[in-house]
């Protein structure tokens, strides 16, 4: 059932209550059935697209392949495309045996099940990394943004240690509607890019770096304390969160694309 169908069913149910055709207690039970599916170990959110624009995403880390498969089957019944993040190659192979139509992005460790064609936006999101070591986090952002219909341009390995590389791509970055900057070490690239563009910038600190990087905390603090305006910071290694938020921003003014 799609988000529009869920909204339609809720409206019918409320009409029945207002006309005394359905009791309040029966309506509550029916609403619970419409909004989630109880699998015992998980309560799958079936109404998230109706509320938030995008369906629930499966977080694969900590779940078995069998659990991922069952949740995927539940979401698949709604007719939506399904995204699962943080899926190891071993889990992917098990999933693919049950659902051979899934596509795996090994660098991003994301699984996509595409049931209907994805229409890409004309405006694009630029995903910029400081180094090659940040690519896995960046690719999670790319896979997420593309899943939700965004054109994406990758600009990788342009960190401040060789800042001339950034300037070679500055025009392309400036033309993006939203920019994601992924950086580890000290995270300085975010402030540099933020001072050169007029688009929203989503900063992603990564856990890449030597000891005093503290697993990404140094980059996180640098980004949070940046004096460049218009910067939003997500959590360490959270490429998914950056891609999701960037998609919402890139679709502003074209809400019909989310239906």
From TrEMBL:
Coiled-coil region list: none
Residues covered by the PurE domain: 123-255
Organism superkingdom: Bacteria
GO molecular function: hydrolase activity
Name this polypeptide is given: AIR carboxylase family protein
SMART domains: AIRC
PANTHER family in the cross-refs: PHOSPHORIBOSYLAMINOIMIDAZOLE CARBOXYLASE-RELATED, SLL1489 PROTEIN
Source organism per UniProt: Apilactobacillus ozensis DSM 23829 = JCM 17196
A Pfam family the protein falls into: AIRC
InterPro entries recorded: P2CMN_synthase_LarB, PurE_dom
Biological processes per GO annotation: 'de novo' IMP biosynthetic process
